[in-house]
Amino acid sequence: MKAKMSDIAKKAGVSIAAVSLVLNGKPGVSEKTRKKIFKIIKESDYVPLRQKRESTRVIANVNLIIISDQHGVVNEIYQKNPFFDTLVQCTAEHIDKFGGTLQINTVQIESLHEEINRIISRTTVVNAIVLATDLDENDIDFIESKIKNVVFVDTSFRKLRADFVTPDNYQGAYAAGMFLLSHNYRRIGYLASNKATQNFLSRREGIRDSLATQNIKLAKNDFYVVDFANLFSENSLNCIDYNDLPEAFFCENDIIAIRLIKELTHRNFRVPRDIGIMGFDDVSTAALCSPELTTVHIPTIQIVEQAVRDLQAQVASKDFRGQKTFITTEIIEREST
User: Would the keyword Transcription regulation be found if you checked this record's keyword annotation (predicted)?
Assistant: First the structure.
């Protein structure tokens, strides 16, 4: 006879409501009790009725696949970025709430096909969340062909049918441009990464469109490209003409902005008195640099929650179709503008 929820509650010495809270990943049950309930569930081979409901299917095992590119955004430097720490931590917590386990795999983009095939050959990979910041369309197609249920985080491609959850980079950059305009900056420069990811391309489009509302164009001589992988080398920002600076710089992410503030300070420029600086991402160090960085906040926790929901929906229904979810951002005004 199949075990019921009441049987699990009785064995665990808790109420049926407590078992329900645990199965649905809700608060109100101690960590010790939650683990005890999941242990009994596994031992009893209990199958929750909620698995039949499309939006709440239990995910047993999930692979978080981090694609690393030594020449791109997710390189050795950027993996220390709090955005990625939060992404990994939140994903682990959300999977754990449902009694699942998270396996983290780091894959070098230079050997993407070989390493994905190697992971699949060693273990069964059915459900995955992929940190896809540096991937292109062909990479997305390849991974989707190898893994049954997969959600790609931190990128999106219009032409593909895959499931994406990403910050709304266009909206965030457009809002940043409008913010700078509202603070009477008119000559606005742009400091870009040499790795033109889909995210960065959307941010460039957003800035350009915001400036266009005031008939302002992003001047070619105010658009600078930096080598992101070598950003902290001594001469990394020598490409900038410090004798003819714009009134403000929008930087493609906070790491670039913080590096620029350091360089400007070294050259005796005062931020924001001499020049305004704005970033994107709202990493924790943005509030610790001097002056504190004005930036665009990305709601990482909401991104993770949506990615897990999408993965659950894929697991629950073979008829689920990939969707593109854009999570809106907000301006965080600090001292650098």
Answer: yes
